[in-house]
Structures are given as C-alpha cells and as structure tokens.
Write the structure tokens for this entry.
Amino acid sequence: MDHDHLVTTKQLSRADVERVLDRAAEIDADPAAFAQRHDDAILGLLFFEPSTRTKMSFETAIKRLGGDAVDMGSVDSSSVKKGESLADTARVVEGYADALVLRHPSQGAARMASEFVDVPLLNAGDGAGHHPTQTLLDLYTVRESAGLDDLTVGIMGDLKYGRTVHSLAHALANFDADQHFVSPESLQLPRNVRYDLHESGASVREHTELDAVLPELDVLYVTRIQRERFPDENEYQQVAGEYGIDLDTLEAAKDDLTVMHPLPRVDEIAPEVDDTRYANYFEQAHNGVPVRMALLDLMLEGDR
Ligand code: NCD
C-alpha cells in the first residue's frame, strides 16, 4: 500500500481496494503459502471499545501469517485507567509492535494517534467516524457474491452513527454503485458524509421506507442502531426495533439479493433469514480473516 496508515476509506483508490481484495483471494486459495510470511511480526491491539470480530480476526490474521499479537487488554486493566493519554499509549506500544490496530470511542482518534507513530496504524473504528477494514471485508464479500460492477446497494439502519456505513459509502463511490440509504429521518447520513459523496459524484438516494427500493437491490446492507452513541436513551427508544427485515420483507426482493450486516445484530434481521440463500453475514464475518491478512501482508511487506 502507498499509505502508511489506514484511517478512512476516502484515502483508498479503486486500485488500492482491488489490490487488497486480490491478495485476500490469493490467501483464500492457498493459505499455507502465507503461513510463515511474517513470522517475526508483532501486531499491537489497542481496543478502547468492545469488539469481538474485529479484534479476534486481526489476531487470527497475524497468527495465520506466522506472527503474533500483543493486546493492551481492557481499558480497565491498562494504564489508561491511570490517566495515560491515547498519544502516549500509542507511542509506547509502537515500540513493541510492527503495526497498530486502534479502536476508540472518539471520532478522529485514529487520525490523531497516527500522527504520533511511525509504524502503520489501522483504524478499527473511531466513534461514529470510520471503519475502513470492515469495508474491505464487506467489499470482498460483495465481490464474491454479486461482483463489484453495476451494483445497486441498499444501506439501511443507523446511517448517522454507523461508522461501517460511512466507510462503505465512500468506497462504493469508487465503484460507481447506485447507493440507496434507508433510515428514519433522525438517523440519516451526516451532512459531511453526504457532502463528500456528492463531491465524488456518487449516485445517492435517501429513503425512509425499504419497500420503495427493495426490488431493485443487488445488496442490502443492514446495520444495528448504535445505541451507545445516542446522547439520549429516549431518542434511541423512539427508533429501536424499526428497520428490520424478516422472510415476509424479502418476498419483494430479487432472487439473487445478498443480505449483509457487519454484526453484531440485535433484532434487525430475524433469525429465520439466516438459513435462506440471501443471508451472507456470517460468511462476511469469516472474510475478516483473509482480508485482514491481506492488508497486513501488504502493509508489512516492505519490512521483510
Ligand atoms: C461494527 C462496529 O464496531 O462499528 N462492528 C464490527 O466491527 N463488525 C458494527 C456495529 O457495532 O454495529
């Protein structure tokens, strides 16, 4: 990769994305060929917010490349509890690791921390900002199921606070996808994201009902309402439980619709959908390993 740090998908060209996805496909086809590739690499994991998939798949990825991970552990058991700043934590851990993965509740945290370190820093989610490595695995999943050309994509749920949505929307703009955003009015795309999408010439439409657009979609990307980001629990309660799908909803869908979700889900996708041909979200989560292996491989390549 040309970039030392990965903070947002806005910094990735179509060619950058394709390079990662192509490498992930090579890894998927022959994982053994990559098993010792970075056997002296250490990945530093700095997670200031809960994570299951992102953290575990990064850890699996570095181990499958022959390397290892060092983990700050929970905020409560780290020096953050003693008042250490993010900049200091990052500067210390860069001395232990060849690359850092950071998840933090503050938007902009990854950009800020990246200014203090020389090793590559990967943003694994900064508040309601961005989540670029999720987008890479999302695009890998879409490429495997529907291809990345001539796509009509619906993105539904919490478009305001959903960082996976912001990252995905910017990346899809590079692939000339038609993007339909479905949400309650209170959770529409933030103004800066909408502005950036328009600036990049993206095809964007916004809806409050899925019915209006479902029959056209190749991909439906469902997201969780980000309860932890709401300043007011009452506001959350007003939108909780809306914007879910079940088997009845999907009757209006194309036969080859792919349903995705970054997970965790709460109640946005009824479990009855899991066993249908539409469901692709567990596959999507599994793709986190080859895609993060590919990204780490490309980023660490220069170090070998
Ligand atoms: C997402 C996140 O953390 O933004 N989770 C993930 O990394 N797969 C989505 C979410 O929490 O809703």
In short: The first strand starts at residue 42 and ends at 47.
